[in-house]
Structure to design on (187 residues):
């Protein structure tokens, strides 16, 4: 059982992230993705970004936690949701964009390239990946959750063939340059 498979842990996380959303990131996304495009959010958690994304895009939310999915489904029964693991991505559906906000850092360092490759299979022609990561080095575990930190060079070096880098830049979430925005386009 994972950390987010426990209702108490999910409720604690929801309280912790209260007041945070990807509004500024989504404003950047709008420069790369046309309104109405299909978008899959990986690791939607409580659904704050999904709520914002569905104002512009045809969204599908996903998470590996059934608890997050059920809580969101109770409040938003009409929204398309999938139970997906960010590594296996067990779906045959296609999307114009795959989006995640600080999710892929929970994958082991050596499995991130495999996830990016699998995501490529789920993208429509010229589709984009839009992912954020914590900047840093090394890894650590909190509450049985793995956190892997990356530099811009780390990310650039593991991108599978078949992608063009549109953006690999630092931005601030909590502290100056503590985060990385990576945007890739399927070639």
């Amino acid at each position: 059982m994972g950390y987010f498979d426990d209702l108490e842990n999910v409720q604690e996380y929801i309280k912790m992230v209260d007041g945070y959303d990807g509004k500024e990131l989504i404003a950047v996304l709008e420069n790369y993705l046309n309104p109405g495009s299909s978008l899959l959010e990986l690791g939607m958690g409580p659904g704050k970004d999904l709520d914002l994304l569905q104002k512009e895009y045809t969204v599908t939310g996903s998470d590996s936690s059934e608890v997050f999915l059920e809580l969101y489904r109770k409040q938003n029964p009409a929204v398309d949701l999938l139970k997906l693991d960010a590594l296996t991505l067990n779906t045959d559906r296609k999307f114009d964009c795959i989006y995640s906000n600080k999710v892929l850092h929970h994958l082991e360092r050596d499995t991130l390239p495999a996830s990016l490759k699998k995501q490529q299979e789920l993208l429509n022609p010229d589709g984009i990946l839009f992912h954020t990561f914590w900047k840093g080095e090394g890894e650590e575990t909190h509450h049985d959750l793995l956190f892997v930190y990356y530099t811009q060079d780390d990310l650039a070096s593991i991108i599978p063939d078949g992608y063009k880098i549109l953006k690999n830049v630092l931005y601030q979430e909590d502290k100056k340059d503590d985060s990385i925005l990576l945007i890739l386009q399927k070639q």
Observations:
- The mean pLDDT is 95.
- The longest helix spans residues 112-122.
- The chain is about 25% helix and 30% strand.
- The chain has one domain: 3-186.
